[in-house]
Structure prediction request, 584 residues.
Amino acid sequence: MPHPASTAPHLSAQPHAVALRRAGQREQIGLLLLIVPAFVLIAGTMLVPVAWLFHLSFLSDEGRWSLEHYLRMWTQPSYLRTFRTTFEVSALTTGLCILLGYPLAYWLSELPRRTANLCMLAVLLPLWTSILVRTYAWLVLLQRKGLINNWGIGAGWWDEPIALVHNLTGTLIGMVHVMLPFMVLPLYSAMRAIDRDLLKAAANLGATPARSFWLVFLPLSMPGLATGALIVFIMSLGFYVTPAVLGGGKVIMVANQIATDIELFFNWGAASALGAVLLATTLLCIELARRLLGAAFVADAREAP
Amino acid sequence: MSEGTSWLQRPVTATQVTHRQRLWLYATAAAVMAFLVLPTLIVIPMSFSASQYLEFPPREWSLRWYRNYFGSPAWMQATATSLQVAVLTSLVSTPLGTLAAYGLHTSRWRGAGVVSLLLLTPLVVPGILVAIGVFYAYVQLKLVNSLTGLVLAHSMLAIPVVVLVVSAALKSFDLQQEMVARSLGAPRWQAFWLVTLPQIRFSVVSAAVLAFLTSFDEIIVSLFIAGGDHSTLTRNMFNALRDQIDPTIAAISTLVIALTSLLLVATQLRGAEPGAGGH
Prediction:
């Protein structure tokens, strides 16, 4: 940026201009130095180690360049199964969150603002509660001698305890419980922004309520729905705690497989390759979301946590 | 009764949908809200049960699970570690994150955008990958099972949160005020300290609380790098959940819920005070 003083006719202004520019540069450097401590900490504990793991994933056990860790994912059925489970569980979680979250967000968006904010506490409370506390709560409710089975049998609805936990059902219940707020929040803000006069206009033109919902409201709520669905799907891909505790070893997602590779086999190469694929998938989904939804997605995703 | 039916037949929307036609929506919304809230709340009465078995409502009340928790050296050690690490993490990540946010906000350097993205990566990269990355680094650096290691790793996870919260506050703050202070002779750091910081202090305090909670709630990284004398509360809880269902966890959960709510309500109330800056 040319400094205005440098073009001034007075020669005596020149040294001042130079000094000013120097001071400006020094200040810019000083401001950048403020970022350094935080950056060094993040680079040292995460960026460098993760880059190193990425490097390890391309080395064979003997230390030579090879793709064996990546090829193994294609050839070993157990790894393929892990990926399939991960996608299935994430997709089911997303679907269930839409099914439960859409009506709730719709109802909330029609309430007066004060009442809606109060009801919003129900959505925010789980966000504030430790994931372990909630996982414990679901174990208490869902296990063989848990409350739901006790109540169900006590009321005569079923005779034998049903297996609600340590399987896919339990994992899904736990994950939907964790992810639902991330679906409701963007949906709610998208629905709040919809001009209800458009629905009146549709009705005025002869549309039934169902038709005006389908043709007017649903398309207008789509950005919120897509944002919520993508956040839920992307975050579900990396889940570890819920499947580990509520899945009882039967639901092995990529994150669980990575942990097992390290804890049991100390196989850094295999774990790193899985991690690289997980990260690549996550980034791909984020990029896809950004393309589809533009800046709105990034803004919403940042508000989410 | 007649009043009830008339309410049902009253239109609720401008398109003449009646409450009766909306009942399914009310029922679904209520059920989903119950699904979100009740499971967490059920832990609280269960923690005061005298029985080892899970029953609700408990037939007899007692504090035995709380006595169990406070009498157990392992749980006490883990709680002390968790609190210590969370406080230290908050003390490390709040100033570092605030400085970085200020630097990024005021710098005209073109690379600032890239750096701010890199600072946010711990939020994007899947937790398990961060965990094994940290574990790998700590094996080389001999930081596994150490307090320092935990604080550094948790600070790495908390800094992005602080950066986001403080950046948002800076965006709504008018930096011209700092220019005024400087034109009156204050050096830049003094202008920041006396003019900017007091006005964004509510956000900085919120960021500190969130950093504390980020550390206190953290599970995956702690599972890998916390152990021995420095096991954390979350790590012990996770392992206990995998083994058997010990009602002591209900007592701990209740205490954790109380602590979290207290912290969040306190920051919210402070923010609601007239004259407290930020938003």
Notes: Residues 43 and 253 of chain B are 7 Å apart (CA to CA). Confidence is low (pLDDT under 50) at residues 274-279 of chain B. The two ends of chain B are 47 Å apart (CA to CA). The longest helix of chain B spans residues 73-106.
